[in-house]
What does this fold into?
Amino acid sequence: MISTEALEQLAAAAGEGSLVSHETVLVDDVPFTVTLSPESPEALGRTLSTLDACGVGVLVRGGGSHLGFGNPPRGAELMLSTQRIAGVLELDAGDGVCRAAAGTTLTSLRAEANASGWELPLDAPGAGATVGGVLAAAAIGPRALGYGLPRDNVLGIEVALANGDRTHCGGRVVKNVTGYDLNKLYTGSLGSLGVIEAAWLRLRPMPAAVRLCEARLKSLPQAVSAGIEISRVASARAVVLHQLRGEDVRLVVELAGDEPTVCRDERALASTAPFVAAAPEALDDLRRRQAVLPGDAGTRFRLAALPSRLGPLANSLVDHASELLIQPGLGLLYAGFAASEAGGLERVARAGSSVGASWVLEAAPASVKRECDVFGDDGTALALTRALKQRFDPAGRLNPGRFMGRL
Amino acid sequence: MTPELLSELRAIVSAEGCRSAPDELLVYECDGLTLHSRLPEAVVLPRSREEVQAVVRACRKADMAFVPRGAGTGLSGGATPSGPAVVIECSRMNRILEVQAEDRYAVVQPGVVNVMLSQAVESLGLFYAPDPSSQLVCTIGGNIAENAGGPHTLKYGTTTNHVLALELVLPDGEVVMLGSPAGFAPGYDLVGTVVGSEGTLGIVTCAWVRLSPLPESIETLLAIFPDVVTACRTVGKIIESGLVPAALEIIDQRTIAAVEASVYAAGLPTDAGAILIIELDGPAVSLPPQVERIREMASSEGASRVERAADDDERKRFWKARKGAFGAMGRLAPDLYVHDAVVPRARMPEVLTRICEIGDRHGLILCNVFHAGDGNLHPNIAFDRRDPDELARVMQAGEEILRTCVEAGGVITGEHGIGSEKKEYIHLVFSEVDLEAMKRLRAAFDPDGVCNPGKLFPSTRFCAEANPKARGYDRVPFE
It folds into this structure.
């Protein structure tokens, strides 16, 4: 139990109005009633230093849209939020790059980028998703096919380490091998090595033409096969398959690029499936679906397989999962199991293993998470993972218990 | 090195796979950065992951450092020992183990030569995208260590965007599999962390690399400008317009003169102030409008002529000038120092002007040929190391160039790496606490600092700015 004296020190370090008591927020059944929101990057550094000195562990969060991801927290006494460290710090329209503070929402950054004639290549689900949170979780949305992954779009990151040291790596330029590429290490590290303060991001050109279309297919293997083929056309920016058990497969495709290429690719689609124009919100619906499937108390897995194995993988799960969402161009399959469906974990582990697919458990009740590591098979790299955690956060203050190996 | 270690190394890799005679070792005294040199204690050429592991373990037992090496084409001294060390050269591990066309990846040993992979998969309609200028000889393992780029990284990215998984022998001899051929391996992005780590975190013994589809169509333009500033402005316009060419390369007037006076002559106008090569690739239907837009942009910035390659032969002629530039500059002086820095693209005109001023002020032959689309500058200084005064001016100019680039918001290397060359300058970009974070990473992989020591981090014993000899510029004069 954190002492009153420690709370006072933390409140002083984090700045005025930074310590907020609130109604209980449950993260994997672990209750949190106090959140620290440092008022600035400097305050974040001071806060981490004070946490370290006081021996207090924290659950690091951004907008909270991916708060459910990770193993159950162990020993964290407070939430540490980056939401007040927000704002687009620089947007270079000539160079197509921007620097945004961690707490900036994707929505606001996207609006500024669009106003400057550029696109933000991050489209993870979650209404309040922030830059820091999305990078920490390496979260993606349907357009990752065209945008690339968060790791591909991060040019530099500013990170406060567990001891309060404020550091940066990478830079603002689009090509850089100056020092180790810590951008890659921090992106997807779920706040286990440091707390992201800000990031330099690559922006993408606005496409001259965009088309959104969809088709309904009876056969899942046929849909997967068509989805892979379509994902390889030049202008494919998003290709998503969605199937509720027992229903037809919905295949939604977004093409984006120059007008001649989009027109050509649109014509080519006709030979793969009976496409019709999709409603403008079709992609947003699927993005939301990706985040909420399969509803309260269910479990959601994300499996990654080679394209040639994706069809067999989908087939082995289709009769058991309540819902499948597939991004064939990325080899990703999201499988949702309703709370009433037991045995999802065993089924996914077996199906994944049979086709060489890796899996992570993206969402599940705490009782399920306690039975397995949500990061699945850790392969041979767990010793390295432990060594990194030990070097960056030796006392285990940041998101204790949440990362791979329950580190 | 002890006779026992040498004997053990020979037993592991066979006598023919172990070099220890002084004349044999001379070949390995430096990489492409000839200013830094040191003979290794021995060189081993393992044939398998097991042999790499055994060599590493033997070195550890004998308390000997080791340095991984590909083809030795690196330009920052990364493959040159900084102290007593055994060089582990991967050229005999040179097989393409597997090509999966449907899943678009290949499994290769680290000694596979870059261009050979693209040649091997061309008939399948695929290629390996990273194309450093040394691609005819450099190896995939070396490319991974340096996160190699090349002219076409503007569109396709650098090596880190094309490596899916790695088998890595750690500095303690253990082997780990990092990443996954399917991508999205759970946990930290250790593949991304190892790529570009300059051979300091372990030795790659196998790599799963992404293969890309050959572009449907290619258009190559050559635009002639009155000066390098107008060529840079055109690049800025192209970037701002949202077009993403496959390559945007600038050759300045001094380089043009050197090229045209050499065997690499490509028929370029020697009175041109600068030449911009623009390569576009993609769907055939998309390229003609892009060609026209770029023509307009170049003309409005003052290009006197924009030529379009009519066929593959002409395309090769355009590229001949670019690819032969470094060779052509070899005619100008016995030594060539190839610098590498990156600046925000909008700052290129002013930075290049200042770089030329620096060269002129120091009385040096300084030419520029660079990846303009990425803001990746390569100021090249031709000089004679036998002249101590000229060598000192080269080093002084180099430092001023790096400082200029950093002041403009840039960094001190875009594709060559820090190596031994720039380790004393990394402070221009990173603070002590920034470097401390990098040291934490290093220590997690190599707590004893035995894998390619003396690279990346500034020396604590010497300060280059106070003591140029600390950077190795006192090597035996070229005769």
